[in-house]
Amino acid sequence: MTSPTDPTPFDPDCLFCKIAAGEIPATIVHESETTVAFRDLNPQAPTHVLVIPRSHYPNAAELAAGEPATAADLFDAAREIAVQEGIDGPDGGYRMVFNTGAAAHQTVFHAHLHVLGGRPMGWPPG
Ligand code: 5GP
Ligand code: ZN
Questions:
Q1: Could you list the active site residues?
Q2: CA of 54: how far to CAs of 17, 51, 70, 81, 91, in Å?
Q3: From the CB of 108, is ligand 1 less than 6 Å away?
Q4: Tell me: the pLDDT tens digits for 42-60?
Q5: What is the mean pLDDT of residues 20-27?
Q6: With contact defined as beta carbons under 8 Å apart, do 95 and 82 qualify?
Q7: Does 38 sit in the ligand 1 pocket, CB within 6 Å?
């Protein structure tokens, strides 16, 4: 049974916990001790990867409070993925997004960092 103090909380009803555990298939593009990254099922750009902590936190704010080192690991994974995908560098550029809360279009309540690239991006975001 998990509790808020469990160091590697797992929610058996959570889609992304199941992907991290290998119980639901996904196209994994990067893994580390603390993170897993896989292609988004409904990509919004030529590269659209989701980087998640292996631990269950409902959003980025709770991850930052509960496991700040892992929050930093998400950014490091994103940097490596950008190189792998060829979207880094002066001619590239990519966007990192944490939707936090339903009003910000969060639909899966396991913290995840969107890494989007491979096309020009507009601003402001919708
Ligand atoms: P959010 O809207 O919560 O910021 O992002 C959730 C993302 O998860 C969406 O972009 C959605 O396309 C993606 N997604 C939802 N279900 C699955 C799934 O089963 N597999 C994969 N790879 N992505 C998913
Ligand atoms: Zn989860």
A1: 112
A2: 7, 10, 9, 17, 32
A3: yes
A4: 999 999 999 999 999 999 9
A5: 98
A6: no
A7: yes
d(CA 16, CA 95): 21
CA distance 100 to 113: 10
Identity at 81, one-letter amino acid code: I
Contact 51, 113 (CB under 8 A): yes
Please list, in sequence order, all residues whose beta carbon lies within 8 angstroms of the beta carbon of residue 26, skipping any fewer than 6 positions away.
Answer: 19, 38, 39
Measured from the alpha carbon of residue 17, the closest ligand is: 2
Angstrom distances, CA of residue 57 to CA of 9, 10, 52, 108 = 8, 9, 10, 11
Q: Which strand (E) or helix (H) includes residue 84?
A: helix 68-85
Find the 108 Cα to ligand 1 centroid distance in Å.
7
